[in-house]
Fold Molybdopterin molybdenumtransferase.
Amino acid sequence: MSMEAAATDQAAAPPPAGWEEARSRVYAVGRAAALPVVSRPLVEIDGHTLAEPLTTRTPLPAFATVSVDGWAVRGAGPWRIVGQVLAGGVPGPLTADGTAVEIATGAMVPDGAAAVLRIEESSRTPDGLVTGTPRPVPEWRLPGEEANAGEELLPVGTPVDPAVIGLAASCGHDDLRVRRQPRAALLVFGDELLTAGPPGAGRVRDALGPAVPAWLRRYGCTVDPSDVVGPVADTLPAHVAALSGALADADLVCTTGGTMHGPVDHLHPALEALGAEYVVNTVAVRPGFPMLLARLVGADGRVRFVAGLPGNPQSAVLALASLVAPLLAGLAGRPMPALTQAELTGPIPGRGSFTHLALVRLDRVAGTAHPLRHVGSAMLRGLAQADGFAVIGPGASGEPGDRVPVVSLPLLPGERGA
């Protein structure tokens, strides 16, 4: 595309979407294209999303369960030992006063038991009787103490994590109905990129090819190594071919670079050639202004998306947090990603009529956000220390003590932030 044609295209383009409006738009199209519901074994659903409420198949616990090692006793002591109950067995009833059975933690409490005497608070007489004083509070969990049979424990849209998997197993489930995880692909654009070794001689190291798949996985996608392609040659036919190939299998294709209208920026004409429609084409945000999201409907009727990430690394991650995260939440049937609130410990300048997303490190105990250095759109040093982006709205600036929204990055627990 000539520089003159590019200038004409830019002049005719609609104004950029506001940042909040852009998030709402992409979330809505994601919900409209929510992925199909599948049934999966518990061992396979980490990172998926519940498509049905999680309910209990029995009361929790299903039967009275002793919580200590000791003696289940009936009547007043001393008690004569008449048996043993281990976890996993069904005990016979205690039918006579003055009798006891040895019982292990997790075992079913026998019918007729009045109390459980802790092993460490008991003693034995020379003739083998058990003595001691049971505590006044029963040492067992009652049926239904945690939940009644059929009770809803978690709603539709809950992300599945190890705790949810364990809860589902305790409820008696072997598999659950979940949304299929989105499959993503990544196309890296730019003849100037190196994929190995140090930068030099006019060429820079590709930082997004290795990093973006990891971000996408943390946002809930599956990304196979074969789904990462590039650098794609800086020609329109190469861009069209790469996009067509990636869209054959992926629900979402992310691209890096080429979102403007320079002499080797071919993403826009490639999307036009493929019949895509823009959901968002540029966002009034700094950094990351040229981010975009496009929607395509294949011959099979299936909806697919292309997220154009700017080539500058921090801007690309901003686009993931701003557009891709809400889209994926919609596709998975989850709520819109919530913004947290934190108090600024330092100033953050405004960006005029644009929203400013500024890198911050969070102290979650104190509820504060600390602005970081090295925050240029091409820099990654600040991002490597950050927990998220503080949101400074249009026409505003951030001052110490201000409470501002924060877009949290999908970091694993304990990685950064207090």
